[in-house]
Design goal:
heterodimer, A: 274 residues, mainly alpha, MetI-like fold, B: 279 residues, two-stranded antiparallel sheet, 13 helices, 2 strands, 1% strand, globular, MetI-like (chain B), MetI-like_sf (chain B), transport (chain B)
Amino acid sequence: MITSRRESLLGRVLLILLMVVTLLPFVTLFVTALHPSGTYPSGLSWPSSPQWGNFGRAFTAANMGQLLWSSVLIVAGVVPISLLLGTMAGFAFGHLRMPGHRIVYLVVVLGLTLPFEGVITPLYYQVRDFGLLNTRWAIILPLIGLFMPFSVLWMRAHFVGMPGDLSEAAQVDGANTWQLFVRIHVPLARPAVSSLAILLFLWTWNQFLLAIVLVDDPAKRTMAGALGAFQGQWGTDIPLLCAGSLLILTPTLVVFLIFQRRFVAALLQGSVKG
Amino acid sequence: MFAAPALLFYAVFVLRPLFLTIQFSLYKWNGIGPSTWVGLSNYGKIFSDPDLYVTILHAFELIIYFSLVPVVLGLVVASAIRRISQSRMAVVSRTVLFLPQVIPLVAAGITWTWLFSTTGLVNQLLSAIGLRGVTRAWLGDFDTALPAVGVIGAWVQIGLCTLLLLAGMSKIDPALYESARMDGAGPVREFRSITVPALRQEIGVCVTVTVISALASFDIIYISTQGGPGNSTMVPGLEIFYLAFSDRQVGVASALAVALMVLVLVVILPIQWLTREQS
């Protein structure tokens, strides 16, 4: 008993230590953001007169309103289409199992290991030839394709677990495959779909590489892409940069804190499946 | 039919670019003018030009920080908190430890750039414990820039690894631990003989996810060092970006891209095979 109490104390100490290390960077960011803009504060120090106005100035400087709207538009493009197509394909691979599905599925799943840098160069020329460079579609369409392996894998894992009797019963009642999908399988897939939606939202919102390569205007990028431009412009004004960074990571933090249970579950499952 | 639209997107935005990358890699092309066939010489260049192959070495070095450190520390922490995994503190920690996974990597990069700067928190802490002598601009120093970038990656990954491993541990039958205790096994023995073997699959997942993030790292380095000082933190992902879009050497960039993709597959497939084999 004594050993186990000592171990659980050690566990607590380690856990607190890990949490401190995780949180400390956020605390520094926050404290630094309150220093007078243009100064070079040292590490972690509370300013003599906290400049709450820095957040307002960063909001204007970063054009946050427009950025938020832009990111929302991009997410609104990527997530619903990915969900629809991913669910349909997951249904096909996991439930209908048409001839040859194994080979095709393998080809799709290999895409999971693909680093985006591997295809970014041709993507640039392709998007240019489509005439979409510098529009939000330049981020939306490729991301749908690039996230497809994961979406399909995720939804297939769900449909593989569904009993076949369900479909047989519906077919006996005269439902065709489309009705079967829409009326029976989609409603049952709701938990899997909503977790996938969370992950896709997060990955789209935080997407950086595609945003900086395919869109020049920061105001049409994702939040993360815009942060890169913000750093380029205000990199020397540390308090303002910190305030801007905090503002830019606030939306995901808020969404995370609201949906944290689902988020944690989705992220854990997501990495296991991926 | 149901899979067709998904496959169409996949074909147009993944497979086609993939084949184009391979095709580009066999040509010399500046992105605008005519291209000339050069066979495999772009690949020759990658393995002979020190500025290029060193990027691959850097990527491997980053595996230590992005992957090895988080997985090992994650294992240690997770097994230390296994007993208290139902307590309030552990519940709070789930939220806290996930924060680095949720924010954009770019934001992590900016934050740590500030922490590592001459007047940043890292140096402040070092001075406070009497190590003023080692303080420096960590990201600006040829010797410390790559490890410093690695620390950022470790910070991002450690929470995820800890929680994944902890979730795996909760599936282990507690009776196993009890009987081990009865046989006189200490915590270290317990860890080696029960915990690690039972977590084979979870460890595999952690390693896979983090190794890909190391080999394909881009965001953090673009923001914190841009590959510098000199070439000391240049990684393949960033080099591809510079070659293709600043230096206009699309052929070499594509050859490096192919090399990177092959590298990821060569490293990941054995890990998958080793850890999934018996499950």
